[in-house]
Amino acid sequence: MGKKRAVVAGCTGCDTCRWLCNFNAISFDHNGAHIDANKCTGCGKCADNCQSYAINIIELEEK
To answer: Alpha-carbon distance 14 to 8, whole Å?
Structure first.
């Protein structure tokens, strides 16, 4: 099983996910949320609470 990671597409900028992330992996700018791949553990807390369903958890392929 590969490492999991959150990805964002279609963020509306509600900012809820940033405050839920225990790993400080989420930042915001004028384009919405950005997830730092080096900090994200793929726990899914952000995706589970995203009101616009813009965050998804994917499994990365192992190399």
So the answer is: 13
Instruction: Give SS3 for 26.
Output: strand
Report the 10 Å Cβ neighbour count for 3. 13
| 13/44 Cα distance (integer angstroms) | 18
Average pLDDT, the chain: 92
35 close to 8: Cβ distance less than 8 angstroms: yes
Digit-coded pLDDT (tens) for 43-62: 999 999 999 999 999 998 77
Indicate the CATH number for domain 4-59: 3.30.70.20
